[in-house]
């Protein structure tokens, strides 16, 4: 009688692999490597993060390491170096980010420190897969060469790459998931940072074949697509960037108002980071048409001065802006969900249906 083929693994003993927070790595090692990533990628955020209490500081480093690595994979960079875009592999790179992030959130090792880091902080802070997917969708837009047509498109993008990160950082600070007012203000902080980044990097983005100024703005200014960096259009560009910075200031004011709900050290760190970015925004405005001749830099001692100012500002409660910013977290999330794929029709029979 022929023998039955023997299964490699008996089905009765197959088990799902055990969860390993942080991919099984020691938390201390993850934190140390994440801190190195932040110091290399953003000296300003590394300095401001020192103002947090120890737990929040380490979670911020872990979150940053994941964001930085995702950005680098999407763009073919190493901590913000020269862009090495290859559209033929863009979809594969984004799918790799999704797979590694999903594994990390499931408590599985990824062999990538930054992804093990997001698994660690997600477990500690209660971060969800929806939160990480919102951020990854922003990297996907960059990888496919997307550009905003309208102001609404611009703000949706800013939500993906920065507003959603602000919400995740707030959760890492210990803000409850149902404290929507504070989470909204954390989103405002992220939007502020990203709008200033876009204003600062107009020339750098153009060199990489990117433009985050809405097409509708360019049309209003009579600037042909792809020609906004020409000297002939510099005055119009200055006007559009001033518009960006005005929007940024509105979100900054809302974020500082919300920071009043945070514990002192967290409030101090948020105000300090906002003011350091504020120095960049002021420099862009002051230099006008020459704003992109070289990248704005805020020196170390100037940053220390801003941190000292933030310390005293943290003892006061910032006033509520009137009006609040035009674009809200709720509105942006609604637009994003509406733009997503249509949910499949349910196939479960209704209770009174006969089988």
Automatic annotation (TrEMBL):
Q: Where is this region: Disordered?
A: 1-26
Question: Which Pfam families does this one have?
Answer: SQS_PSY
- What does the record give as the organism's lineage? Bacteria, Pseudomonadati, Pseudomonadota, Alphaproteobacteria, Sphingomonadales
A Gene Ontology MF term for this entry?
A: geranylgeranyl diphosphate synthase activity
PANTHER family from the xrefs? BIFUNCTIONAL LYCOPENE CYCLASE/PHYTOENE SYNTHASE
Q: Does the keyword Chloroplast apply?
A: no
| The protein's name | Phytoene/squalene synthase family protein
Q: Which GO terms describe its biological process?
A: carotenoid biosynthetic process
Which InterPro entries did the record assign? Isoprenoid_synthase_dom_sf, Squ/phyt_synthse, Squalene/phytoene_synthase_CS, Trans_IPPS_bact-type, Trans_IPPS_HH
């Amino acid at each position: 009688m022929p023998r039955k083929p023997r299964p490699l693994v008996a089905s009765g003993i197959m088990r799902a692999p055990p969860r390993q927070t942080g991919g099984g790595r020691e938390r201390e090692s993850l934190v140390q490597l994440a801190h190195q990533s932040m110091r290399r990628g953003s000296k300003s955020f590394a300095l401001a993060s020192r103002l947090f209490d120890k737990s929040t500081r380490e979670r911020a480093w872990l979150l940053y390491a994941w964001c930085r690595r995702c950005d680098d994979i999407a763009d073919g960079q190493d901590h913000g170096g020269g862009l090495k875009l290859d559209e033929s592999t863009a979809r594969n790179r984004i799918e790799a980010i999704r797979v590694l992030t999903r594994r990390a959130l499931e408590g599985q090792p990824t062999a990538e420190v930054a992804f093990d880091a997001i698994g660690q902080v997600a477990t500690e802070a209660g971060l969800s897969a929806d939160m990480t997917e919102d951020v990854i969708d922003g990297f996907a837009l960059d990888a496919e060469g997307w550009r905003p047509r309208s102001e609404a498109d611009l703000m949706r993008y800013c939500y993906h790459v920065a507003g959603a990160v602000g919400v995740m950082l707030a959760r890492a600070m210990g803000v409850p998931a149902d404290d929507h007012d504070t989470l909204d203000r954390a989103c405002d902080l992220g939007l502020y940072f990203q709008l200033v980044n876009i204003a600062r990097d107009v020339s750098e983005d153009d060199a990489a074949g990117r433009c985050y100024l809405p097409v509708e703005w360019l049309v209003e200014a009579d600037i042909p697509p792809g020609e906004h960096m020409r000297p002939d259009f510099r005055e119009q560009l200055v006007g559009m960037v001033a518009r960006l910075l005005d929007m940024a200031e509105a979100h900054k004011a809302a974020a500082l108002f919300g920071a009043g709900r945070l514990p002192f050290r967290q409030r101090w760190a948020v105000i300090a980071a906002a003011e350091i970015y504020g120095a960049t925004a002021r420099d862009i405005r002051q230099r006008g048409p020459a704003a992109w001749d070289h990248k704005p830099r805020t020196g170390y001692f100037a940053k220390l001065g801003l941190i000292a100012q933030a310390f005293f500002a943290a003892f006061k409660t910032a006033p509520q802006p009137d009006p609040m910013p035009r674009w809200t977290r709720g509105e942006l999330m609604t637009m994003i969900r509406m733009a997503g794929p249509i949910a499949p029709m349910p196939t479960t029979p209704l209770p009174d249906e006969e089988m």
